[in-house]
UniProtKB/TrEMBL annotation:
GO function term, MF aspect, one: DNA binding
Pfam families reported for this sequence: DDE_1
Domain of life: Eukaryota
Sequence ranges assigned to domain DDE-1 in this UniProt record: 101-155
Organism: Oopsacas minuta
Protein name: Tigger transposable element-derived protein 6-like
PANTHER family cross-referenced by the UniProt entry: PROTEIN PDC2, TRANSPOSON
GO cellular component, as recorded: nucleus
Length: 156
């Protein structure tokens, strides 16, 4: 808008008023909208990892049986965190609030021989109220002050 106003002034066009109308209509016509960028998809080139996939990994896998190959990953579950974006009516005020940082850490683990192990959930409370009266869970639960994975938990 600033640049178009500059050119209109330079060309002595006094009736021109810059606005977002053109770009808004163009975005609508071509189905372009605002999205939040997330992740790091395709940040490593295929060529750079090809030797490792073709040579190094097969040699490593020969040293172990499928029962001794594990895949483990942890993720944080912010169970009180509200979404960063929402739908609302035009003209309606939409404001956020302080981000809730209450979390659980969830460890997901599987063995190559297709056996899934129970989830390990790490919370802050040693004995959460929501578990009162429950005799067994389909997961393992442990706790520490920050609900984080530690080296000791991982070894256990």
């Amino acid at each position: 808008m600033e640049k178009s106003q500059f050119f209109a002034t330079a060309m002595n066009v006094s009736t021109f008023k810059a606005n977002t109308g053109f770009i808004d209509r163009w975005k609508r016509r071509h189905s372009i909208g605002m999205k939040q960028i997330s992740g790091e998809e395709k940040s490593v080139s295929e060529e750079s990892i090809r030797p490792w996939l073709d040579i190094t990994l097969p040699e490593l896998l020969l040293k172990y049986t499928p029962e001794n190959i594990y895949n483990v990953d942890e993720t944080a579950l912010f169970y009180k965190l509200r979404p960063e974006k929402t739908l609302t009516f035009k003209g309606e005020k939409c404001s956020g609030s302080k981000k809730q940082k209450d979390r659980l850490t969830v460890l997901v683990e599987a063995i190559m021989a297709s056996e899934k192990l129970p989830l390990l959930v790490i919370g802050k409370s040693k004995s959460p109220r929501c578990f009162a009266g429950i005799r067994s869970l389909p997961l393992d639960y442990i706790s520490n002050a920050k609900a984080w994975m530690t080296g000791n938990f991982f070894q256990q």
